[in-house]
Amino acid sequence: MTNPHVAMLGLGRMGSALANRFVATGVPLTVWNRSPAKSFPFQGRATVATSAAAACDMADVVVLSLSDYSAGLEVLDEASAACTLAGKTLLQLTSGAASDARTMQVWANMHGMEYIDAAIVAYPNGVGTEAAMLFYAGAEEVWERHRETFTHLGGMNRYLGDSIGAAATLECAVLEYYYGATLAMLHGAALCNSENFPLTEYFYLVKALGPLLTGTADASRTMISKGLYDGADCSLDVHVSAIRRIQRMSHDNGIDTRVPDAIMAAYKKAIAAGHSDAEIAALFETLATNS
Ligand code: NAP
């Protein structure tokens, strides 16, 4: 199907960026937002609906970008009482957990809607650019039918198969990496700052660390797949010495120690489980259980 009519429900920071991208790429669009003021910038560029039901009524594809899945269920429950949703495709672009995706799929199927659960990893100003990653889960035939419309939204579009929780799972995993790495990166900046070390040099080197991180990712993937963590690079014992140094310097310089403390706790758990001589990827074994 080319150029299906899209209803965009939710015009917050992300919803507005998605709607603007649909407008820019010529997708026929109706927008709706709970607070009408956020619809005003779309006057004359898209159809502005006064209710979610009115927006859904004229659409082939209903796109949600709301605070959470429960808001989506609330909005769609109300819309379903006033219009027929059966036969339409629901594209969920609200962030959630895998269990939220499963609940929404049941709801969509009960109402005769096709369902694609999706996730976006980008800030609103990245929507439509090469840097925006979008993940999609759901029936392949539905994805293929709407691929052209959906892929207007970002440069990296990954269809993950029909296991409906896959997009939410991958988004959570990728965001955890982003948040964890960003937290440690900012803690390193605080450490430099505590010694009046120029942050320009630090941030230059942070960017240059890219190949080390991707190399570690490659080695970890191989080791996890084999369940073997022997290697000649660096033992967990030696990594622990480095982390202890970071803890001590943070303490000495009066900065927050909770980041190195949390890192140390994870490494000590792996060492207690018998991985002291193993490579860094052995942490996976003890992170994979909550004991
Ligand atoms: P936001 O600016 O806070 O917008 C939230 C939207 O949800 C608004 O349109 C709000 O309507 C609506 N809403 C909340 N509860 C509602 C309810 N009960 N009924 C109807 N509408 C309701 O948030 P956002 O940044 O756009 O985020 C939206 C989604 O995108 C989230 O799931 C977020 O995780 C995801 N996301 C955001 C980013 C980002 O960088 N911003 C990046 C990736 C993914 P009102 O205007 O009436 O309050």
Q: In short, what is this structure?
A:
With 291 residues, this protein is α/β, with parallel strands linked by helices. The chain contains eleven helices and eight strands. It has two domains: 6-165, Rossmann fold; 170-287, N-(1-d-carboxylethyl)-l-norvaline Dehydrogenase, domain 2.
Describe the protein's architecture and organization.
The protein is of the alpha/beta class and 291 residues long. It folds into two domains: 160 residues, NAD(P)-binding Rossmann-like Domain (Rossmann fold), CATH 3.40.50.720; 118 residues, N-(1-d-carboxylethyl)-l-norvaline Dehydrogenase, domain 2 (Orthogonal Bundle), CATH 1.10.1040. Helix content is 51%, strand content 12%. It is built from eleven helices and eight strands. The chain has an eight-stranded mixed sheet with strand order 3-2-1-4-5-6-7-8, with helices on both faces. Helix 6 runs antiparallel to helix 7 and helix 9 packs antiparallel against helix 10. It binds NADP nicotinamide-adenine-dinucleotide phosphate. The site of NADP nicotinamide-adenine-dinucleotide phosphate (NAP) has 21 residues, from helix 1 and helix 3. The site of NADP nicotinamide-adenine-dinucleotide phosphate has 21 residues, from helix 1 and helix 3.
